What we know:
The structure is a single chain. The protein is of the alpha/beta class. The protein contains 13 helices and 18 strands. It folds into two domains: 36-435, Alkaline Phosphatase, subunit A (3-Layer(aba) Sandwich), CATH 3.40.720; 446-524, 2-Layer Sandwich (Arylsulfatase, C-terminal domain), CATH 3.30.1120. Strands 6-5-4-3-9-1-12-13-2-14 form a ten-stranded mixed beta sheet, sandwiched between helices. Strands 15-16-17-18 form a four-stranded antiparallel beta sheet, covered by helices on one side. Strand 16 and strand 17 (455-462) form a beta hairpin. Helix 7 (250-266) packs parallel to helix 8. The N and C termini lie far apart (85 Å).
Amino acid sequence: xxxxxxxxxxxxxxxxxxxxSQQAQYVEPSTSNKEALKKPNILVIxxxxxxxxxxxxxxxxxxxxxxxxxxxxxxxxxERGIWFNNGHSATALCAPTRYAVLSGNNNYRSYAPWGVWxxxxxxxxxxxxxxxxxxxxxxxxxxxxxxxxxxxxDFAEKGTNKVYRGTDYKEQNKIDLTxxxxxxxxxxxxxxxxxxxxxxQGPIYLAYENxxxxxxxxxxxxxxxxxxxxxxxxxxxxxxxxxGDSHWDTRKMGDILSQKAVNFITQKASNxxxxxxxxxxxxxxxxxxxxxxxxxxxxxxTPSAHLDMIKELDLQINRILNALKQSxxxxxxxxxxxxxxxxxxxxGSIQAGHKTSGIYRGSKNLPYEGGHRTPYIxxxxxxxxxxxxSDEAVVVQDILATIAAASGRQLNAxxxxxxxxxxxxxxxxxQFFSRNQMxxxxxxxxxxxxxxxxxxxxxxxxxxLNKFEPIALFDLSNNxxxxxxxxxxxxxxxxxxxxxEEYLTIRESKQPTAPKYLSSIDKH
Length: 524
């Protein structure tokens, strides 16, 4: 039987519409499935001078003790994810750790392994180097940096193209401080940045948006800030005076920075995931807590100004997490929270019974566990099982490979030689490579640290002369508090020398130290 042309067209139309409807059903899954198919947003939070004992989750869940100060927002991240009980900053000081976080490299790969402290020194990370932002940007991520930089950078002398390389603590009338021309976040893969060159401690005391000076007030001027010219004398920290914004007020910076983070998170972009690196300058000195934050009392609400600042840090994080929740992005956001080094020993806090390092010896600037074993949390509600506590050894260098993998990108040994992908561990998928060796640093006295399994060797270095003298060996499995009575440096001399030689061989060869690349003959 022949079909008329009209009937054939009708039949084909029905078939076409049915096929299209089936295709539409396939590419338009349910809301929950669509969320599962999306790449996660990524938020990395780097706290400043936050010790393990500064977090109430650690005190209650690890030490089983009450906490002097409450950190409910930080606690919520641990409760919805993983607390790493063996998590470490790269060093016991902030500036060198910031290099390791952003680049994923061990510090000895830097031209300044002990940190770039001067605002006007060259950044140790080159424009062509792998960074957190460069790792995920090719995967379609909108990238942002907000907070404390402390990696140096390039500013020109006025009226020239010559880069200034002088001091940062004196009156600098010959520098064009209105813009950063190199070595900044926007040169290293970030689409957006709101940056404080050295955080709240100065010098310099200026804010930059996309590397252009961002006046804090309509009447702001760039001038020399010291105890006599600053709004409040305490603003000029122990780091000294320097050029700054005439309206710089340390008490307002946490509010400004966290609001910039909220704005970045809530910025509309069609189907575009974001990566935000939020490097808060809290709880570094000067400790100048605001009277209130989001309606909650801060100044004077705890036994010390130091603890007030921990509370303010937590309120900043709470504001940012609320922005994720209110915009419907919380469940599919991978959040990593770490600290740049251990916490602070402040008299008022100690008198109140506060222990910034918990059970660990030392604090910021010291080579003991309290100097570099810090809060380390990963949360991703859509993918990570809640309430986990892990004893796996992890370092801040591992963030880069982890977020790259979450974005769908695998990095090679040249791109991330020291960064270990933690994604298989936290999601219980694929093969995970445990880290048995860590290459860390102490503080301003330039100690090198080599941890292998449970053995920790501390070397006093004179890196200019390439000397590394063993000063301590601890068996952390039996002496986690690093009691000096358990210092085995003069007892187990064979082990000391073997570990020293192994450390120096790996360091000098510049071989990759991520576990999947690192092989060691000595397994003991």
